[in-house]
């Protein structure tokens, strides 16, 4: 009897849904079932500044955006933007179904006394110190702010894809388990990193390689602490695919006097190469994915955005979050002359072919004397 009633209710909801489904003429992504089960155009709200958003709660993020672009990031894809992006990874990855941790929950800020002591979080005191006053000023949760700042940081890096931003992460309850293990280290081998990333967020090998496109807008401060701000590729202010090309070149030199732990020789003067990136480019589990992104900006953008969006909600049920992606600005395109290239002084013969099933794509070298990459100006 009960079952009969239940199925009658389902039938009537289905009837209402299909009736309204025919009524919602907008594309399916702009329609939603409301509380009565009707399939209607999603509601939009207009914020005080005139912007329109899907959910009124998202309006609160526009003042944050307008504050952090000039006052936290100086409107550039520089040191602060790079630090915010790295922080989002180190907060989110602190989760394991077996060991605990809250994922992208802001624990790296709230429990910074604990988490910043973890060796893998070395150097993150800078972005934590930068972000805390903005979190206090805007009264948002640290978990939300860290992911918001990372999404906004990408919007400052020409060539970056637009990533999602979900709000409503609660305050963290405890620090991520430590001191070692949950955050990948540059001296970990590929199997260890892939296993950790699969455990934390179900990331595939290709997802992990795609996430490393982030190292296209990045450098190291602490791997060799004598040379802070040493970039990982020749264009650290552009989200491009140079990281996938330059790490495949034969390494010949260290940028500092002595290599740091987890550092191997790089091909270009002034560049620092992480051992983990070097191995990802060469290990049979990842080398073809790595190669597939070299010179393939659209493929890199889309795979990075997919994996990043997954990373930003580790530890959360998406049904409890509000999608505020419409607050995140798009990044400018790459400059017209920023096409993929070999750095000046390199040739195709310097590429260490690793993928067994396809040749590495061919690139021309920039003209002029061998490239020397300047350090990223430190704040
Ligand atoms: C999965 C393996 C990864 C390893 C082993 C790794 C390791 C590192 C290391 C050692 C540094 C240099 C830190 C320093 O000395 O200052 C670094 C920098 C950076 N990483 Fe990663 N990383 C990984 C993945 C990621 C991911 C998934 C992201 C973001 C989505 C990311 C974003 C960054 C950024 C933006 C920087 C530059 C920070 C700055 O310039 O201040 N990394 N990474």
TrEMBL record:
Chain intervals for the UniProt region annotation (Disordered): 360-379
Disulfide pattern: 47-59, 58-324, 77-157, 288-355
Biased composition (Low complexity): 360-372
Keywords: Calcium, Disulfide bond, Glycoprotein, Heme, Hydrogen peroxide, Iron, Metal-binding, Oxidoreductase, Peroxidase, Secreted, Signal
Annotated site (Transition state stabilizer): 86
GO biological process, one term: hydrogen peroxide catabolic process
GO MF assignments: heme binding; metal ion binding; peroxidase activity
EC main group: oxidoreductase
InterPro entries: Ccp1-like, Haem_peroxidase, Haem_peroxidase_sf, Ligninase, Ligninase_C, Peroxidases_AS, Peroxidases_heam-ligand_BS
Major subcellular location class: secreted
Residues that hold Ca(2+) 1 according to the record: 91, 103, 105, 107
Protein name: Peroxidase
């Amino acid at each position: 009897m009960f079952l009969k009633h239940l199925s009658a209710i389902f039938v009537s909801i289905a009837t209402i849904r299909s009736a309204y489904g025919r009524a919602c003429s907008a594309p399916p992504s702009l329609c939603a079932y409301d509380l009565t089960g009707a399939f209607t155009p999603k509601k939009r709200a207009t914020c005080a500044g005139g912007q329109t958003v899907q959910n009124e709660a998202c309006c609160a993020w526009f003042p944050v955006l307008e504050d952090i672009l000039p006052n936290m990031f100086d409107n550039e894809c520089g040191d602060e933007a790079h630090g915010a992006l790295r922080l989002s990874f180190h907060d989110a990855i602190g989760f394991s179904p077996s060991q605990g941790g809250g994922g992208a929950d802001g624990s790296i800020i709230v429990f910074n006394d604990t988490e910043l002591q973890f060796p893998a979080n070395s150097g993150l005191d800078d972005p934590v110190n930068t972000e805390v006053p903005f979190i206090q000023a805007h009264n948002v949760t640290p978990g939300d702010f860290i992911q918001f700042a990372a999404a906004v940081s990408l919007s400052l890096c020409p060539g970056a894809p637009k990533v999602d931003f979900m709000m409503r992460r609660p305050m963290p309850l405890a620090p991520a388990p430590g001191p070692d293990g949950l955050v990948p280290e540059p001296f970990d081998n590929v199997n260890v990193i892939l296993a950790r990333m699969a455990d934390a967020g179900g990331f595939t090998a290709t997802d992990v390689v795609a996430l490393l496109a982030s190292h296209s807008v990045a450098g190291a401060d602490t791997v060799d602490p004598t040379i802070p701000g040493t970039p990982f590729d020749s264009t650290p202010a552009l989200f491009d695919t140079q990281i996938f090309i330059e790490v495949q070149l034969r390494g010949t030199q260290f940028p500092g006097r002595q290599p740091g732990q987890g550092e191997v020789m790089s091909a270009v003067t002034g560049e620092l190469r992480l051992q983990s990136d070097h191995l990802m480019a060469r290990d049979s589990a990842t080398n073809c994915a790595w190669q597939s992104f070299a010179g393939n900006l659209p493929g890199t953008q889309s795979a990075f955005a997919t994996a990043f969006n997954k990373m930003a909600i580790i530890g959360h049920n998406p049904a409890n979050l509000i999608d505020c992606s419409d607050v995140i600005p798009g990044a400018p395109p790459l400059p017209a002359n920023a096409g993929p290239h070999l750095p000046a002084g390199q040739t195709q013969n310097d590429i260490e072919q690793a993928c067994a099933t396809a040749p590495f794509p061919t690139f021309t070298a920039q003209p002029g004397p061998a490239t020397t990459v300047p350090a990223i100006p430190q704040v």
